[in-house]
What we know:
heterodimer; A: alpha+beta; BirA Bifunctional Protein, domain 2; 2 domains; seven-stranded mixed sheet; 12 helices; about 40% helix; rod-shaped; B: alpha+beta; CATH 2.40.50.140; CATH 3.50.40.10; 6 domains; six-stranded antiparallel sheet; 21 helices; binds zinc ion; magnesium (chain A); cytoplasm (chain A); nucleotide-binding (chain A); tRNA binding (chain B)
Amino acid sequence: MSAPNKSYDPVEVEALQPEQVERMRDEALAAIAAAADLDALTHVKTAHAGGTSPLALANREIGALPPQAKAEAGKRVGQARGAVNQALAARQAELEAERDARVLVEEAVDVTLPYDRVPAGARHPLTTLSNRIEDIFVAMGYEVAEGPEVEAEWFNFDALNISVDNPVRSEQDTLFVAAADGSQDSGLVLRTHTSGVQIRSLLERELPVYVIAPGRVYRSDELDATHTPVFNQVELLAVDEGLTMADLKGTLDHMVVSLFGEGMTTRLRPNHFPFTEPSAEMDMLCYVCRGESVGNPDRPCRTCSSEGWIELGGCGMVNPKVLVACGVDPQKYSGFAFGFGIERMLMFRHNVEDMRDIVEGDVRFTLPFGMEI
Amino acid sequence: MRVPLSWLREYVELPAGTTGRDVQAKLISAGLEVETVEQLGAGLQGPLVVGEVLTIEELEGFKKPIRFCTVDVGKANGTGEPQEIVCGARNFAVGDKVVVILPGGVLPGDFRISARKTYGRVSHGMICSARELGMGEDHDGIVVLPPEHEAGTDAIALLELVDEVLDIAVTPDRGYCLSLRGVARETAIAYGLPLSDPALIDVPGPNPDGHPVRIDDPTGCDRFTARTVTGVNHEARSPIWLQRRLQKVGMRPISLAVDITNYVMFEVGQPLHAYDRSRLNGPITVRRAQPGEKLTTLDGAERVLDGEDLVIADDSGPIGLAGVMGGAHTEIADSGPDSGTSEIVIEAAHFAPVPIARTARRHKLASEASRRFERGTDPQATSAAAQRAVDLLVLLAGGTAEPGVTEVVLPYAPRTVAMAADHPDRVAGTTYGRETVVRRLQEIGCDVYGSDELIVTVPSWRPDLGAPNDLAEEVIRLQGYENLPSTLPRPRPGRGLTATQRLRRRVGRALAGAGYVEAPCYPFVSAADFDRLGLGADDPRRRLVLLANPLDDTEPGLRTTLLPGLLATLRRNHGRGAQDVALFETGLVFHPTDGATAPERLPVDRRPTDEEIEALKAALPEQPQHAAAVLSGARERDGWWGKGRPATWADAVEAGRTVAREAGVELIVRPAQYAPFHPGRCAAYTATAADGTQVPVGYAGELHPRVVAALGLPERTCAMEVDLDVIERVGGGRVTGPHVSTFPVATQDVALVVDAAVPAADVEAALRDGAGELLESLRLFDIFTGEQIGEGRKSLAYALRFRAPDRTLTAEDASAAREAAVAAAAARTGAVLRS
Lengths: 373, 835
Ligand SMILES: [Zn+2]
């Protein structure tokens, strides 16, 4: 390396020797090639390409040369500097690539590490299944109606044509709110179904009424593997001009297709309920075996006990007496209704074997159901 | 109702080869719930024959008495020699006729019989008990047959051991199917075959010579037939066929007279009662009991009667609970001190369903008779049923029918229903046509007149048919529910979920997203729950809606807070080994309404008035929707990322904010002392209502250590509960889109020293108010206590960001705003700038 020329006096300067320029260039190129890392390269850059490097100084001296020497020297120094800069850039890229390769490898982590830092939450499948069913009917134009869980007997029984002497109004079946004297003559019960919401809907809404009534209901039952005294229902009520049992059947069919897939269907069997006439028990085709297990001992079905059908709940045409109690003209309007238990559907839809798992709130049961069902 | 196929065939000539399963399928399709078809005598194989016991030798020296018998089995064993059989039963004597299965035979349950050595002898067969033959559960010993059957007779046929029994769950509207007559009618319709109606028999007309009967209560009884049979041989036993039919329908044969009344009840559906005439005092009266009157019923229980009970009485007082159970005094006896009953009065009456149902329930005395009267019997069948019983008593007990026939019949008009001929079509949504409708109605026993408008007279055994829809159901079920078309109605467009419903879903999602698991709990609580929660004696949450008949007497109330249920669930999870548990629930709580009285019983034949509906609703308790969360263990777990942190009061308080945020409500948090929370770690939430007032929303914090101990919860369990209805009410305002300023932000930090007891929320509120409109945001980023600050003091460090909507703020602008903020904090909280 040549020392910087401090006394800048062009007159004294000799013409640049070509060998001198070549040497400067070669020294620079050698230093560049020898730079082991980016830091070293930075130093090399300062020394051989910086403002005080020999080539830079030589370049500055060119101005002082006589005109005939100036052009030649300028060309020579320019070429040398170009070569040095090119080499610098190349080496810079080379070293950066090396560094990146090394550092990114060093920064690699085990992405398979678990991250259960905050425990997960979940919604209860009873809620999400009920929501899911609500959504099916909301999409059809139904609205979701709700009511209180402690309900007046008139809403829960009388208006539904369930007479005082009906055995379901006994303490074996129904939980009665105590009157002031402790007796069960308070006129209030823990609702035994969400049918009271149907009555409220007919009283409060304008006709036609298309509502779905989900909610918690109560029966005087013991908790065991298949029963719970506190359970959830979804009931549906449609009251309009000209509604028929065929409409009821079609609505049920639509529901099971929405919940269980194409090809699903329902079956109605005659039954008796005070609030509907005609009344029916509704079954849905077994969504697992689609009925193929019936009479086929080689392919038994646990879901439907090889019956081919799964019992869903009760349904029927709204008893005209119920319409009358709600001030609806049965000559003009007819309606259909159905209801079924969410717990039961949860059990057969998700292979839950014990009711207690649904009601006990063990997080191990609920967590796998996540946020939607 | 159990229906033996062999008995059913007596009224419907089913095609040969028809099985119980065939009939089951047909009846199910017609709407009868045939639950099972029991195969009686399945696998049974002879030789099974009548035997006559010739000799009995008692074998000694065994744990139980054993008999070695020789039994004449006729030619059944091929030799005619007496059969040697070892038997463990003792209820027979030499000369008795018994049932013997010989080697080679198979009893139900694949029990194969062969000659075998037992008790030191070789037993060539077995003398059978009723249970072994599949005849019933009686196991008092072996079956002893009436003497008239000859040894060697095939007992499988004699005892009708092979049969099929349909078990039908009869719905309350189909009382007529609690009889062979009714089920036979449905079977005949289903097969399109004629029915031979067992009630269609000749009966003598009434005359004044029968046992006198008076009906004092025409609302409870509108028809009463009384017949008398004398000269009854009280030693006569029911023949095998009668006993077997009763066994198959599930009745125990008792005595001939009782068996006959039961038999006719199952046959025709008309419950009968038989009185010992010698024990009757004067005329039979049907009346209501006098309150406090006493009656000892057949089951031996002495019952104190209610004024509503319908009774049968004579001059001595009540002699039976009408339609439910007879009295012990007039019971017919086949033996006893007075030698048995020889004169029998048969009662066949029609009682109204409601009083019978009430009496049966009041006295907890459901009987085969009350089951039938409750559902409604055929009032026209009383005389035929009585005649059947008389005939059987004459035939089987050697009795003589007295010519006297009592028939008390109140005026009666058959029920008619007017129905448009196309009504069933319109209910079903399909076209049956008038002809089909008329034919189906006639099949079930209706008389039908008219063309477009049908006048339908319903049969006496169908009290359930009273309206056009009832008739439509009959037509539709007989045409087959399975043949209904499937169509979809077109509701008018709905408005989707309500704001409340959407909020509840969002709250559930938000809490679940924040790591809480939803756990819907039973709402039943006890006073002890509140003791454990440390609630004061006059805490309003102790005022409960109580149940008259709780599932568990120790939990008679309905929850006023969600916490007892959630905490119990948390403890259960903890007890099962879960360490970090966070749960939530949204649900109703119940508060009694002050001064609420039982609502009036409203009519059902019209719409109640708006006032009546309001009065009804006012009688209900308040039932607000709450949301609550509980948590314990780690909120963040230890792991490769470093230390975790335990769940704290702050998480609980934040859970409330999470809920409120879903409603667009900002909660104001104040320190509070409120059970069941730690007095120094409890936050009360309020929110600002539309009118500017502060409304209470709920509480959160760490539970009181004593509550944690009393409930057996993990240490430092935390909880939160808010009233979701209140949150919804104050929230939901429409958000105004903020103007977003693109001018630069000016940031200023400030550290303020205040008394340790000053809530940070107060300092923050003062800063906000003082800083004015230029303040864009404010955040507490550090709290410091220590010597430099002074004892009982804390330093709060805030980052303030200022921005103007219309210009770049100068340093002076920002400083001025900051100083104003500090001045406000100083004035309101005594804060001083930390130097
Ligand atoms: Zn299946």
